[in-house]
Write a structure and sequence with these properties.
The chain has 209 residues and is α/β, with parallel strands linked by helices. It is built from five helices and ten strands; from the N terminus they run βαββαβαβαββββαβ. Helix 1 links the parallel strand 1 and strand 2.
Amino acid sequence: MNILVIGANGKAGRRIVEKALKAGHQVTGVVRREGAIKGIPTIVKDALQLTKQELSQFDVVVNATSAFTPDMYHLPADLTLLLVKALANTNTRLIAIGGAGSLYVDEDHTVQLNDTPEFPPEFLVRSKTHGKSDDILRKFSNVDWTMFTPPPILDAEGPESNDYILGNENVIVNREGKPYISYDTFAQILVDEINNHKFGRQRFTAVQN
């Protein structure tokens, strides 16, 4: 498949690119500056300036952008809206990366992790803003989307593992009782979802043992 990875030079993006290439896919990256990632074709521009013509030539678009500073908190939701509008009524699939704070902690799906007293207040605005992406996706019935939401502990140094548990809307834990996954395992599961298409128009999560 021909895959576009937005945010290809980020922690998640680089790993997704690597594992998609290993799986035999063609991969193009969207980056903000020339030379930010090597070894694949790139589109160098602000992701919010991507056009329908650019996006719809791909089989799958992966939104792997992240926002770590207050001036960028708007990016995930704004970009999600741009992408669903551009990909509506096309054959291009959209895979977005969600924020862990938007996972639910109750079976009725009324309380999200970022609604709980234990959620770090310094991350609340960022989490709530990112969480709007899920609401946007659900409003578009004419887009083939999937949202993959990591658990609260996403480890850049941890090893890749084939021993993991999949979930849907709720925070889940591994056999040690931890909501944990490494970036490498997360990226591999995302590429597996590209290949297998199990979660069409759904959100899912995962933890590794």
